[in-house]
Amino acid sequence: MTTLVFSGLALGAVYALIAIGYNIIYLSAKTFNFAHAQLLMLGVFVTYTGLMEWGVPWILVVVMATGAIAIAAAVEYVFAVRPVKDMHNILVTTLGAAIFIDGMVSLVWGNQPLAVSFPLGNDAIDLFGGRVYPAEPILVILVVLIVIAEAWISRRFLVGLALQAMSENIRAAQLRGVNTKLMAFGAFVVAGALAGAVAAFVGPKTFAVSTLGDSLTLKGFVALAIGGFGSMPGTLVGGAIVGLVEILGARYLGSEYSNLLIFALLLLVFSLRPAGLFASSTERTV
Length: 286
Fold this sequence. Notes:
Oligomer: single chain
Radius of gyration: 19 Å
Distance between the termini: 52 Å
Shape: globular
Largest sheet: 2 strands, antiparallel
Structural class: mainly alpha
Strand content: under 5%
């Protein structure tokens, strides 16, 4: 059981990382970047190429993936987001970007799963009575640190306060002098850089495979919806719930039922808390 819990929490940390990326964009533009999981997938493949094919040191690979995916996110914003006037249509254009990245990855790297090495090793070790891969507990710690850092930045720095103002009311933030277009562009780049930076930790858990983006897109969104739109702490809880339900459901009921359990849980949460567990809906008189 301990081994299953470790594996579920690590998988949930990956989903939480996707949900964090969704939240960064949602808070700045009140929309979603449905290509964010594909950006993380692209980061995993860049990491694989640097480590396994070019023999680049691990730290330099992290820097390389961070820069490459930040640039990819900037390109996506320029071509798939900036020309769109209606924020709701961004859902369609970013979905098109996701399809483009999927096709590009399949064309360049193929469709076979590729193993990504981890500096602490890829062999399971004993921890608290269970077997765990070295990347798994580090993934969990990493996502917690990211959420703590985001909370600190949002309270201590002007850019965080501006982002909070935009999440409340974009038009009011504009009237207060916030450059909302620049902030939205910066949010895409930061979310992309984050996806590239964590790819070196995600790859050993998920492998580099061309279907990774599609899987993470859906379950990352479920983690976000359960935790609550706009809530960074909610991404931790939502990701952990989805990861544990998936692993335990696959173990005791079969893999064909794990996705069914996840979406049944999502419907249950929506029926009880429509805004998610850690977010509250706001009613306004008009």
